[in-house]
Each structure stands twice: as C-alpha cells, then as structure tokens.
Amino acid sequence: MILRRSAREWMGDAAVTAVGLAIGLLVLAGSREDYPAPTGWVDDVREAALGAVGLLVLMLFRKRWPVGVAVFLTFLGFTNSVSWGATAMSVYTVAVYRRWPSAIAVAALNATIVMLLFQLVSNPMSRQDRWEASVVFVLGYTVLVAVGMLVRSRRMLIESLRERARAAETEQLLRVEEARLLERERIAREMHDVLAHRISLLAVHAGALEFRPDTPAEQREAAGIIRQSAFEAMEDLREVIGVLRRDRPGTDDPERPQPTLADVSGLVTESRRAGGPVTLDEHVPDPGRVPSRVGRHAYRIVQEGLTNARKHAPGAAVRVTLDAATDLDIEVVNAVPPAKPGLAMPGAGAGLVGLAERVALLGGTLEHGRTGDGRFRLHARLPL
C-alpha cells in the first residue's frame, strides 16, 4: 500500500520532501550562525542521519498517517535541526488530509514547543531576537495550515464535481436505457395488433376450410389443427402483451388503430395548423404497396423529426421527403437557429434512441446530425 503509488504521487511526495529538506537546511544554517561553537564530524553525521530519517518518514508515511508522522517529527526535532523542515511539511500534510481541528492542534503543538525552546534554552540570542524568531515560526505554521486547508478545499470541490459528473452520466445512461425499453414495449404492442389481425384471418380461413362439406377428412383434420393452433397463438400473444402492460397506468384502454405511410400527410397538415412551416415532398407511387409495418415505423420517424424541430428550432422551416424508388428513404431537414443563452431546451436524446430501435428492427439505417450548411438532418432508410 505504501509503495504502490503512481508516478504523479511519487513526484508530489518528492516535491514536499525537497521543500522540507530546504527548510531544514535553512534552520541548520541559522543554528550554526547563532551557535558558532565548533562541531566535529560526529555531529555532522548525526545531523545528516537523523534528518534523513525524518525526511524518509515524511515521504513514505505522510499520507497514510499524517497526524502520527507530525507528532513523531515534532519530538524528533529535539535531536537535530534538519528534521524541522520535515516537521513543518508534516503540519502542512495534516491540513491537506485531515479536518481543520487536527491541523490546528498539531500546528499549535509545534508552535508551542518552538516558542518554549527559544525562551527556555540558554543561547546567545537577545530576548527580542528570541521573540521575533518565535513569531516568525508561528506565522510560518499559520501559512502552512492555511495553504493546506485551501488545497484540501480545492480537492474536495474537484471530487464533488467529479461525483456529480459521474452521477449525471449514470442518470443519462439510465434514461437512455429506459427510453430504449419503452420503445421496444411500444413496438411490441404495435406488432401485437398486426399479428393479431393476421392470426385471426388464418383462424377464420382454417375454420371455413374445416367446416366445408366437400372438404376431405384429412384436410378437415389439418384445418382444425391449424385453427386450434391459431387460437392458442392468439392467447399466448395476449398473455405476453398483458405482461408488458402490467403496472402501467392507462393501459386498460383499447389500442388505437396504428398509423400507416398514408397518414404522414395528415401529420404534416397537423404540424402546419400548429404554425410550423412544413413542406412535404413525397415520391411514393403506390403507398398501398408499402408494408404496413414499414409504413408504421416511417410515420413514427417523421413524427419524431417534426417534434424535435418544434422543440429545438421553433419557427424554422422543415422539409419532409419520402422516396420509395428502391428502399423507403425518409428525410426530415430543418434549419438550426443560432443558440441563445437560456433559451436552449434540454433533451436527453431518448426519441432518437427509440428511432434507432425501430430502424434496427427492420434492418435499416439511421443518420442524424448537423450538416455543413447549418441545418439538422434526420435520415432513415427502411428496406422494402
């Protein structure tokens, strides 16, 4: 745990240790100036060894046990002058990684010990010099604690913003997934009407064949099996749709007739009555030849395109194009007005997610986005 750090963390720890070393050397130089008594190589080795111990403890353990390291270095300072720099940086570390009461308590302990050393230990400094030195050390600890608390506040703010960003991203993913599931459920309900109609026709024809007087016995039996299977399929289908509708408000109402490609013109007319300049360019020779399921999805695509245009570009001209030369091409293009602060309507893109589900169900393609001439284009190609 102690050695498993990133390169950036090691660089930060090394920088803090280097600052502590610089402060310790300054304290050592000041003490040699105030105490000019000659020192031997033994004292130099002792200063270097004990100072190295303090700096090593600071670099390795300051983040894991900041308060313990600060207290240890405080008492280590009685034995040497170099470790005073490590002590000062340990106070800064406590302010960064612990709450303010711990930082103030550790700083007060160090400041008190420093002031007592200056006042009680006999030295050649005058009384005024000793008080000035004490004030300098107290101000230094105050600055370290203040800077450490500012760094802690900034880190907490950044972490809070990151947490909000992660929560917003998760919420967006949940909204998209919910929209996808709701669209699949809606598609399943629409398919229920289509399948129910076709299965009921199959059952009617099988029943007519079963009860015809001139039908051979073998064919009559086969027709009866087909009719019974169609009836059971209808029951199974109704049960599946019932599961989808369960716990959904308003699902007891009967399903409305599903739209077709021929209803797109009515949709455009309705948008014009609402005040939108919508143009329909239709190149479908025989709309009746377009399969009902393709026409139903085409209607929903145009409906979503017009809704997005009203929401994000109110009053802009919209052109709807339908072309059934080979496949069914659907295009909804509208101008994008310049963005105005405070007027942009929020959107989660759930409608486009639903369209992607519909198009993928038919094996088609869907494209949407801004064009080079400042317009928004929604294009879908549905195979016929």
UniProtKB/TrEMBL annotation:
Lineage: Bacteria, Bacillati, Actinomycetota, Actinomycetes, Streptosporangiales
Protein name according to UniProt: histidine kinase
Domain of life where this protein originates: Bacteria
One example GO MF annotation: kinase activity
EC category name: transferase
Species, as recorded: Actinomadura meridiana
Family matches, as InterPro entries: HATPase_C_sf (IPR036890), Sensor_HK_TwoCompSys (IPR050482), Sig_transdc_His_kin_sub3_dim/P (IPR011712)
Stretches assigned to the Signal transduction histidine kinase subgroup 3 dimerisation and phosphoacceptor domain: 183-246
Compositional bias per record (Basic and acidic residues), positions renumbered to this chain: 245-256
Protein's UniProt keywords contain Protein transport: no
